[in-house]
């Protein structure tokens, strides 16, 4: 994941990696087959419309849409272009589609079935900010948001820190699945498991005070899985709530992120973890990854915005330059996504 200093053995290793990296960059004409439930049906009348011609701006002037608007926005696109989308059972070139191209670009960065895998992913501004306090801050464009949901689809568990749970009241589900993914993936009842890192078990008081919790509503309305709150063994208390389980972790393991995820995966049906944030969790992971390369994939969406000094910042506590290797960039309409793997 990170480039090591080029000395002695490391230098050879790095040169080898550079060579491998060059190979990765060799332009290839990829044949893109979209998994689709109608895939085997004979092609319907070929439509020559280029998806790059879709005028996204007519749906909204502001690329910074809220999650809810994103869904509406997407529905509009799909409704308008349904006749085209239903023809996706042909082989297509990646120039032809905007959202599809994003999803396909991350194919080589996805977890392999049944492998233990850790993905760290988040969306940031140009000034490395990931949101305002207590205000769910849309950063990603519709395409990159879609890509994130596609990523979610390929993981068993989605992880956030307690502050993100409190400040964003997130859904952490596959809400775009029904809207879009049906067009790209075989139908499945796949649900991702929300995991909240809550060492001190603050959830105990929170549920007494707050009733409108999206994770709870989603579970009760069958729109999401039962959440797992992960706490320190020394802080464990029983909670009798249908929508959540509490997993206690030995105190000496808890803050070692690699060991923590291994511990969870040995006790829950979760092999692949997608960690979305917030800043403390991201910083901590990046810092620990420098010594123990446990992050398999790092995917950062960079949006063409500044959020300013009041926003929450990602900046690991390191005192040296840290580079990524095995890097690919994917350019969207407004955002750019950087992908890196071990
Ligand atoms: N743009 C994006 O992609 C995302 C943005 N966010 C934003 O991040 C902000 C929250 O970030 P933070 O305040 O930094 O909180 P956070 O979400 O990182 O949670 C921090 C809390 O997690 C717990 N924790 C458990 N293990 C930990 C560990 N190893 N290291 C650090 N904390 C650990 C502690 O209770 C700690 O107080 C919110 O404003 C949210 O909107 C969150 C996720 C993604
Ligand atoms: N990929 C991405 N782009 C943004 O613009 C974001 N604000 C976030 N935030 C993360 O997504 C969570 C919200 O998830 P739901 O849409 O409610 O399922 C939020 O809590 C952050 O983790 N991510």
UniProtKB/TrEMBL annotation:
* Role: Catalyzes an early step in riboflavin biosynthesis, the NADPH-dependent reduction of the ribose side chain of 2,5-diamino-6-ribosylamino-4(3H)-pyrimidinone 5'-phosphate, yielding 2,5-diamino-6-ribitylamino-4(3H)-pyrimidinone 5'-phosphate.
State the protein's name: 2,5-diamino-6-ribosylamino-4(3H)-pyrimidinone 5'-phosphate reductase
* E.C. designation(s): 1.1.1.302
Q: Entry's SUPFAM superfamilies?
A: Dihydrofolate reductase-like
What is this enzyme's catalytic activity, as reactions? Answer: 2,5-diamino-6-(1-D-ribitylamino)pyrimidin-4(3H)-one 5'-phosphate + NAD(+) = 2,5-diamino-6-(1-D-ribosylamino)pyrimidin-4(3H)-one 5'-phosphate + NADH + H(+); 2,5-diamino-6-(1-D-ribitylamino)pyrimidin-4(3H)-one 5'-phosphate + NADP(+) = 2,5-diamino-6-(1-D-ribosylamino)pyrimidin-4(3H)-one 5'-phosphate + NADPH + H(+)
Give the InterPro entries listed for this entry.
DHFR-like_dom_sf, RibDG_C, Riboflavin_Biosynth_HTPR
Report which superkingdom the organism of origin falls in.
Eukaryota
Q: Which GO terms describe its biological process?
A: riboflavin biosynthetic process
Q: Does the keyword NADP apply?
A: yes
Q: In which pathway does it act?
A: Cofactor biosynthesis; riboflavin biosynthesis
Instruction: Name the family the entry cites.
Output: Belongs to the HTP reductase family.
One GO MF term on file is: 5-amino-6-(5-phosphoribosylamino)uracil reductase activity
* Lineage of producing organism: Eukaryota, Fungi, Dikarya, Ascomycota, Saccharomycotina
Which keywords are on file for this protein?
NADP, Oxidoreductase, Riboflavin biosynthesis
Gene3D superfamilies (alphabetical): Dihydrofolate Reductase, subunit A (3.40.430.10)
Q: Bacterial bifunctional deaminase-reductase C-terminal domain spans which residues?
A: 117-337
Q: Where is this region: Disordered?
A: 1-21
């Amino acid at each position: 994941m990170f480039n090591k200093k080029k000395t002695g053995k490391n230098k050879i290793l790095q040169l080898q990696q550079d060579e491998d990296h060059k190979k990765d960059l060799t332009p290839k004409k990829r044949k893109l087959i979209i998994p689709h439930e109608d895939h085997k049906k004979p092609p319907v009348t070929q439509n020559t419309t280029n998806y790059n011609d879709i005028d996204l701006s007519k749906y909204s002037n502001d690329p910074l849409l809220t999650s809810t608007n994103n869904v509406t926005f997407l529905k509009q696109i799909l409704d308008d272009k349904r006749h085209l989308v239903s023809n996706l059972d042909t082989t297509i070139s990646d120039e032809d589609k905007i959202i599809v191209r994003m999803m396909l670009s991350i194919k080589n960065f996805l977890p392999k079935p049944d492998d233990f895998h850790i993905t760290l992913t988040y969306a940031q501004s140009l000034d490395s900010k990931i949101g305002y306090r207590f205000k769910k801050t849309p950063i990603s464009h519709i395409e990159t948001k879609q890509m994130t949901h596609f990523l979610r689809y390929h993981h068993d568990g989605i992880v956030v820190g307690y502050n993100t749970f409190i400040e964003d009241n997130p859904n952490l589900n596959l809400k775009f699945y029904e809207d879009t993914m049906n067009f790209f993936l075989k139908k499945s009842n796949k649900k991702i498991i929300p995991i909240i890192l809550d060492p001190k078990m603050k959830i105990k008081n929170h549920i007494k005070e707050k009733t409108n919790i999206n994770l709870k509503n989603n579970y009760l309305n069958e729109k999401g899985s039962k959440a797992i709150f992960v706490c320190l063994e020394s802080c464990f208390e029983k909670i009798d709530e249908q929508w959540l389980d509490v997993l206690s972790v030995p105190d000496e393991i808890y803050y070692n992120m690699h060991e923590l995820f291994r511990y969870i995966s040995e006790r829950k049906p979760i092999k692949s973890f997608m960690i979305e944030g917030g800043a403390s969790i991201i910083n901590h992971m990046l810092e620990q990854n420098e010594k123990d390369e446990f992050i398999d994939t790092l995917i950062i969406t960079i949006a063409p915005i500044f959020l300013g000094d009041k926003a929450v910042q990602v900046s690991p506590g390191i005192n040296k330059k840290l580079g990524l290797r095995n890097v690919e960039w994917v350019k969207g309409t407004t955002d750019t996504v950087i992908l890196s793997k071990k």
